[in-house]
Structure formats: C-alpha cells, structure tokens
Amino acid sequence: GIDAAAGMSDPMSIGKAFLEMTARMMSNPAKIVEAQVNLWHDYMQLWQSTAQRLAGGGGEPVIAPTTEDRRFNDAAWQENQLFDFIKQSYLLSARWVQSTVRNVEGLDQKTAKKVDFYTRQFVDAMAPSNFVMTNPEVLRKTLESGGENLVKGLENLLGDLERGKGQLQIRMTDPEAFEVGKNVAVSPGKVVYQNDLIQLLQYAPTTENVAKRPLLIIPPWINKFYILDLREKNSFIKWTTDQGHTVFVVSWVNPDERLARKTFEDYMIEGPLAALEAIEKATGEKRVNVIGYCLGGTLLACALAYMATKKIDRIASATFLTTMVDFTEPGELGVFIDEEQLQALEARMSEKGYLDGSAMANTFNMLRANDLIWSFVVNNYLMGKDPFPFDLLYWNSDSTRMPYKMHSYYLRNMY
C-alpha cells in the first residue's frame, strides 16, 4: 500500500535531497534573515490592507491567486475579510517557502528540481481550502446540513480505503456509471488477432466509399486503448471509421507476474510488427498508415528505426499524438528518475514482477495535485458529495501495470 501511495518516488531519495538543501541553506544565514525580513514585510502589508477593509476602506489585496487556481473560487474568499486574510496569508507563505527553497545556492539541478517539486506538494497539501475550519464553502455546507456532509464524507473516505485495501484510492468519478462496451468503448469492433501482449481490434468503415489503405493505431500500454473511443461524441475511432478508414487498434494486455521478463523489444515485435502481419492477412494490404499515441508513439518511432535498418517497407505514413521522442527535457517526471530512485523502483518491481498501475497513476496525479488529488478530497470528503460521472476520469482511473523488465529498460534508456 505504501509503495503504491509513493508512486514511482523513493522516500529515502526525497529525504536526502531536503537534507542537502537544509545544509546549504544553513551555510548562508544572511540569506535566511533576508528571506524572513521579506516575509515580515509582506505580512505587514497584509495586516494594513486587512485593517483598512475592517475599517470600511478599500484595502487593495497584497496577493491574489492565479486565474487557473480554482481553490478560491467561492465568493467568501473575496467578500469575507477573515477568509480573505486566511487566503492571502496562505498565498504569501506559499510564495515565500517556494522562493526560499528555489534561491538556495550550490544545489545541483537534479536535487533543486526534486526539492522544488516536493515543496510544492507540501504547500498544496497545506492550503486552507483542504480543511473544514478554514474553507468557507465547507463550513456553510456543514451548518446547512447539520454536519451531514462530514458524515457522508467519512463514508466516502472509508469506502475508498476499503477499495484500495488499506491504501487511499480516491474516487475521481462514479465507477458504477460506466461499463466498457456499454457506454464507453462502444464502437463496434472485433478481435482479429492476439498474442501474449496484444489483441488486435478491427473496426469497419461506416461509409459507402472506403479507403484502400488500412489505419493502425498504437495506443500506450500505461492506460487502456479506449481513450480514443470514449463515447460517440468524443470517439476518435468512430470519427476515423466515419471518414472511410478500416481501423485496426492495438489493445495491450494488462500484464501480471507471468510477463515480468517481457522486454521493450518484445513490445515492438509482438505489438506493431505483429499487428502489421495480421493486418496483411486480414486485408491483403502490406502498407498501412499508422498513428502512435503517447508511449505507443515512442514505440512506433523505435519500430520505424528498426524497420528502416531491416529494409522493411510497410509504413506509408506515421502520425504522432502527444508523443515523447526526445527525452532531453522530460519535465517534472524527471524528478522521479535518477540512479538511486531507479534502483529502489527496480527492487520494488522485482518482488511482484511488475509496477502496480496505481503507483503510476499516483505519480501522474502528483504532477497536478490540486486538480487531481486535493479537489477530490474537498469534494468527496469535506463536502460529502459523490464524484461527477466523467468518462475521461473513469478511463484515467482504469490503470494498468508495467512489466518489470520493460519498464526498467524504458526508464533507463529513454529518460
């Protein structure tokens, strides 16, 4: 449970980064004093502004949330002087903590990014919107319902703990509202080929005139294929069949310990290369158009290089959607990937033969914690509401495992 909750991160590595940051910070006491003076100055301004408002004056805000920050949308955060003070004091403290950490000199870039990332996690967790007594919307709901929201919230919390077998698995949507093949992944298709790693799905065109050349879609195996076939109105697969394409989609297996030794190369050979053979058998067409989506696109780029070397001419065109092919700047995912953390992750994976899907999901959720963690904590546990039925978040929660050998290779050789 703890492993999955930590995502791909290693707590020991995080601790070392903060120890190094603290040691560097203490070596320059003048900078600490300067930072404290700056914070004191900000608070003096806030007290003056609040005093003016309490006396009936204008009192311009010292700091305001960014336009995309939805935590403080309730009118009381602006209109009520007390909650406005709580909001502004939090934003000032958050800014101070993060800028102080960012300005520590002498840290290598990797450690600095790690410290900055986990400082933000802490700052986001401590937002006043996440607590009953400092969230005006929650307080209002508690008074109106006589505390019913908190009772319902506790039920939701216990239900999520039970579902996660002791690990908190926050419901992002109503899982009962969707069923694969019933109201998501509803495009009519059939399985035309399968092996250890894939089922190949075929979707017939809906038009009178049909394109001769088939289209192959390679989705990622970090999630399920139906991101491209959620519902009729937002199904890419339906749209392509409506344009006259015969569409083939790779549906990756959700691997368990039996597939622990499957390599990245196996994914290429048993994935796109096997699919191309199967498509030729099904249609008689040797050359196809291909779309690679996310990790499926990374695999497609590797397959194209392999096929070029082997003089295999099967791809007429290749299109990449949200695909990483240059991993020089992997963004915040790089925080989770260094030698120490990879060794810790490999040790965890070797026990089961795979990385649990929830560990990967938690890692991605941490990249946007306010949207993908804390907003649901407030909605489900403090407000006592059921999550909204949302097809995209249902798919997002339908996580898949990563086989040990493949995932280790992918992280070490790409990232």
Descriptive notes:
The protein is an alpha/beta fold and 415 residues long. It has helices at 2-5, 11-26, 29-54, 76-79, 81-102, 109-125, 136-145, 148-163, 236-242, 264-283, 295-309, 339-352, 357-367, 369-382, 391-397, 404-413, and strands at residues 189-194, 198-203, 215-218, 247-252, 288-293, 315-321, 354-355, 402-403. Helix 2 (11-26) packs across helix 6, helix 8 (148-163) crosses helix 14 (369-382) and helix 10 crosses helix 11 (295-309). It starts with a helix and ends with a helix. The mean pLDDT is 92.
Main sheet strand line-up: 1-2-4-3-5-6
Q: What kind of assembly state do the chains in view correspond to?
A: single chain
SS class: alpha/beta
Largest sheet: 6 strands, mixed
Q: What does the radius of gyration come to?
A: 26 Å
| Total DSSP helices | 16
Q: Kindly state the mean pLDDT as a whole number?
A: 92
Strand residues, percent: 5-15%
Helical proportion? 40-55%
The stretches of 5 or more residues where confidence is low (pLDDT under 50) are none
For the secondary structure, the number of strands is 8
- Note the overall shape: globular
Question: What is the H-and-E element order?
Answer: HHHHHHHHEEEHEHEHEHEHHHEH
Q: Compute the separation of the termini in Å.
A: 26 Å
